[in-house]
Design brief:
Blueprint (H helix, E strand, L loop, with lengths): L1 H6 L18 H30 L6 H20 L15 H34 L4 H4 L2 H22 L1 H5 L17 H35 L5 E2 L5 E2 L3 H29 L9 H24 L1 H11 L15
Helix pairs in contact: 2-3, 2-10, 2-11, 3-4, 3-6, 3-10, 4-6, 4-8, 4-9, 8-9, 9-10
Length: about 325
């Protein structure tokens, strides 16, 4: 009986050790396999997006720079976050208290950057559709670069604020040895990371959707312009409408993947570590980082062309950065 009890502990030689979860053998194996598969594809697919936008000069547009920043955050999710999600199934944390806190700290920066980048993408599409005459003057490459830099700086400072007590004394909230628990002000995180950005995204895209529908009707009626706010007459290119639709899919997928986690936080419900609900929510959040480049592959011809050039090593040719991929 004593041997059985010891086998159920994360660290059998310590009385203060946490207990392992009891799962059928196939469940942890299936979870680890799926996590490894998603992690590998997330890294590879987002790396293709990063190389494509960085290498080909035609893709150096304000909108694509926002997609590049989003791809970087998704790439880091696959590289740094997913491999450490063993505690989705098993609460035993073998890497120490400091690594535990740093893991959540980095995850907060990366996830925060994804959320803010999505807000910036929504704002970019809002200006492109609702104020196309002034888009090129308002949304410039330099302004987008500054916005992306501020986005990452903000996420870094916000994460320090959120995890200050945990960084100051790692492991202070653990109830047993081998546990990885952090404590943050949930209400602040809920408002700053969910309610405010999601509200902004929804408001911006509702406005974009209304204008896009008006433009589609106008084009079907062979009308080249429609009157919008303040009786200003504008026209929107088909390419802008297509970009808005594609990025709208990205935003919808983002909401589907992130909403369950924050809805649980909003309802003040607790999810047991290692439970089916915890595993499902974790998979949803991480799968978002893998789905974004898949969406680009389906909707963006330039991404398919650039991936072909990358995989065939044509980008190693001289002056390959000037190749036409549009």
């Amino acid at each position: 009986m004593e041997i059985l009890e010891e086998a159920e502990l994360c660290f059998p030689h310590l009385n203060t050790s946490c207990k392992k979860n009891t799962h059928p053998h196939f469940e942890p194996l299936l979870t680890y396999t799926l996590l490894s598969f998603i992690s590998l594809f997330t890294v590879l697919l987002n790396l293709l997006v990063i190389i494509s936008i960085s290498h080909f000069k035609q893709l150096h547009t304000p909108t694509n720079l926002l997609l590049l920043s989003l791809a970087v955050s998704d790439f880091l999710v696959g590289l740094l976050a997913m491999p450490f999600q063993i505690h989705l199934v098993e609460p035993c944390w073998m890497l120490g208290d400091l690594v535990c806190v740093l893991h959540y700290f980095l995850l907060c920066i990366i996830a925060g950057a994804s959320i803010v980048n999505t807000v910036l993408i929504s704002a970019d599409r809002y200006v492109a559709i609702c104020d196309p005459l002034h888009y090129s003057s308002k949304i410039t490459v330099k302004r987008v670069q500054v916005s992306v830099l501020l986005c990452w700086i903000y996420c870094g400072f916000y994460s320090v604020f959120l995890f200050y007590d945990n960084l100051k004394q790692p492991g202070r909230y653990n109830s047993c040895y081998g546990e990885c628990v952090v404590n943050i002000v949930g209400a602040v995180d809920l408002v700053m990371s969910f309610i405010i950005p999601i509200s902004a995204i929804i408001i911006l895209y509702v406005r974009v959707f209304v204008v896009a529908v008006s433009q589609a009707r106008a084009m079907r009626s062979h009308i080249t312009a429609v009157t919008l706010q303040s009786s200003v007459t504008v026209t929107v290119k088909k390419s802008e409408l297509k970009a808005a639709r594609t990025l709208g899919v990205v935003v919808v997928v983002f909401l589907i993947c992130y909403c369950p986690y924050y809805c649980v936080s909003l309802s003040s419900s607790d999810i047991i570590i290692g439970s089916a609900a915890n595993i499902f929510i974790g998979f949803l959040i991480f799968s978002n980082s893998c789905l974004n480049p898949v969406i680009y592959a389906f909707f963006y011809p330039w991404f398919r062309k650039s991936v072909h050039l990358i995989l065939t090593f044509d980008i190693l040719q001289p002056n390959s950065s000037g190749v036409n991929v549009l």
